[in-house]
Amino acid sequence: MDPKDLLYCKTHEWVHVAQEGGAKLATIGISAFAVEQLTDLVYMELPEVGGEVQAGQPFGEVESVKAVSPLYSPVDGEIVAVNSSLPDHLETLGEDPYDAGWIIKVRITDDSGLARLLDFAAYQKQCAEEG
Amino acid sequence: MLSARLVIDPPAAGAWNMACDDMLLASVSERGQWCLRFYQWSEPTLSLGYFQRLEARGQHRASRSCAVVRRATGGGAIVHDHELTYSFAASAGDRLSADLTALYDAFHETLIEALADFGLRAGLVPDGQGRTADQPFLCFQRRSRGDVVLESAKVAGSAQRRQHGAVLQHGSILLRSTERAPELPGIAELSGLELRPEQVIAAWTPRLACRLGRRLVPSEWTSQERQRAGEFAQQRYSNPAWSERR
Fold first, then answer.
1. Which of A16, A60, A85, B75 could form a disulfide with A71 if both were Cys (CB 3.0 to 4.6 A apart)?
2. Complex ipTM, two decimals?
């Protein structure tokens, strides 16, 4: 996926929204900037398929440099797919954060949270301020 | 100058100690109140890093008789016996705490300065110590960039949890070796100097205040905070589901 086409949380998760079978499907990952900032990722815990996520609430956790950090969902919905190979291949996040490094897919039940997300330009600006 | 609370607690059980730190993290998220806390443990206790497996403690025979608690922070297992533990909760958006490693450096560099007051020449583990999931079970057998070493042995290390715009940092200073982890020398074995926890706190705290840019105001828990910590202890840290979650 082209990072320019994605929406971003202030907490560095990206989301791609597509129509699929009459429903909106969100693919969620973490940005290249976040992966670079985290450095030395060693653990990742992911949810189960079928679970529910809420916008602004954690759906998983990672550990890097002895720091445990949550992964936040940008949308409300039901988890329909999990990239379960990722915890054993965390290098994928650095190598291909916007395609092979996707983390979960969510069938959106409430997309009102999307309006609060950042577009690429706004996210780039935030990263420049943080970096 | 802005202020932060300074709490020096008496020794307590592992579940209570961890629950107090959860409460501090929640207080920062809710009210932006920063706090530095020093504490010890009322019985020898093995604390597991958040992602460590409970069954991994079977690898370490000497600590098998210890109580066990799972931390909310990352890193490796620590045998809390003759050591000093600190916790620090702050907003994650601050210039110092926004960076994962800058907050470790702030604590460890000032600790090295404090130890120098006692004639000890400690240093930091240099950059280039990459981490993998395949690390020794015990925190003090691991080496990460910025850990505090004395005579090549690690004597202090820290770990964090970040959530909802706040950061909690835990750290441990190994004052003396314990029969529950005899392979780890403490400051006493490495230097011949028996430092008491209160000596380290007295030498370290003013330097930390300066580095953090906060006036540290001695404080005690309110009754509401005690009640809340008790709830966290019961729901999470005393609950086998928490210790056995992986």
1. A60
2. 0.93
